[in-house]
Amino acid sequence: MINFESVCELYGKYGIDAKKAIEKLNNIPISIHCWQGDDVNGFENVNGELSGGIQTTGNYPGKARNPEELMADFDKAMSLIPGKKRINLHACYAIFEDSQKADRDALEPNHFAKWVEFAKERGLGIDFNPTFFSHPLAADSLTLSSPDEEKRNFWIRHGIACRKIAAYFAKELGTHCTCNVWIPDGYKDVPADRVGPRMRLKDSLDKIFAEKYEGVIDSVESKVFGIGLESYTVGSNEFYLGYAATHKDVFFLLDNGHFHPLEYVSDKIPSLLCYFDKIPLHVTRGVRWDSDHVVSLDDETKEIAKEIVRNNAEDKVLIGLDFFDASINRLAAWIIGTRNMQKALLYALLMPNDRMKKLQDNGEFTELFMLSEEVKTLPFGLVWDEFCKMNNMPSDEKWYDEVKKYEQEVLSKR
Ligand code: RNT
Ligand code: ZN
After folding, report:
1. Is 29-338 assigned to CATH 3.40.50.720?
2. CA-CA to 261 of 20 to 30 Å: which in 70, 180, 230, 269?
3. pLDDT grade, residue 49 (50/70/90)?
């Protein structure tokens, strides 16, 4: 059995402090999305249709059907994820007492009081998202860019209501709340007017962001296309990057499923770091398209983590997850995806980053290549084990036994 001290010695030879690495990792929050637990269903209309050009595929049994189940599942999953966690909610996860049902444009902080209670008890921060889909007024996938002024105003009111709720989360929990606007708006076929919808979106955003709310980090999320909306996306990359660049307190959220396959978010992070002091992320795994597979410990996830860690941008890059796989156990999806993001960060923290930068600047590319390949076979897994041990969590596949037990005892009975 190799002990952690000898692992530290091995890393020490490369000038890497493995103990420091796990301490750092322990303080990097990952915002875990509630919507993996119920296939982006929400509580308004259980088993309703997911709209907006996004899709979960699969029908693994046992998805959460109400707040109690979702919270219990989330708790179980969190008990098997080490490190610092936050929870990311969508507006369609409002919890109503029977008498106070409200439409999206009339949502209020008290509709999220149960979530605040939940977060307080567990020491979690909350991040938030208005829900501009799965609603009758979004049936045509036109919300903030709709030519129908009444509809557009409804969605503007929703955006404003959500920012107020985000401010409530920030105040109650004493930590920021990222409030991210993603809309599905687009057209299936080649549009006759590409500017009009964008000018309307711009106007809607100006109205939504008109007031400043304490503790809220506002962001806008672009994408390439949605299902049934293949020809045109109103909220394109250029549109939102331009918007964020010209609006002081609005940031640009990068979802790594939302770009062409040869564009890399790992290269976009260091570009945006030159201009923005916050970069919210949605880390996902697109397979051939924006498929939202569970995050894997793959090259791009590691590369994203490197850009966060070696630029000391842990406070600037706000890491959130965004995947929804309904074909496998949903708790396992949460656990695997989140632990993979943490593994990627740890991997990046265990690289001789300063030495590598110097080699690049000195033009010593042979040594740089040699070193980057050598460190790949250092016993990274043993440092991960230590990190899990420090958090009293199983480091190996033993966590899966717990999930299987929960599946037998709880999920299979739903
Ligand atoms: C959709 C966006 C968006 C959603 C969530 C549910 O393509 O990625 O972030 O996945 O808001
Ligand atoms: Zn996203």
Report:
1. no
2. 180
3. confident
In this prediction, residue 98 carries a pLDDT of 73
Question: pLDDT, tens digit, for every residue of 153-207?
Answer: 999 999 999 999 999 999 999 999 999 999 999 999 999 999 999 999 999 999 9
Rounded to whole angstroms, the Cα distance separating 220 from 353 reads: 31
Ligand 1 pocket mutation pick from 34, 54, 293 by most atoms within 8 angstroms of CB: 54
| Cα-to-centroid distance, 255 and ligand 2 (Å) | 5
Torsion of CA 155, 161, 165, 166, to 10 degrees: 60
Q: Where are the beta strands (DSSP E) in 261-302?
A: 279-283
Measure the CA–CA gap between 288 and 345, rounded to whole angstroms: 25
CB 283 within 8 A of CB 320: yes
> 170-181 burial by CB neighbour count: b if 16+ within 10 A, else e?
bbbbebbbbbbb
With the C-alpha atoms ordered 349, 350, 355, 361, is the resulting torsion angle positive or negative?
Answer: negative
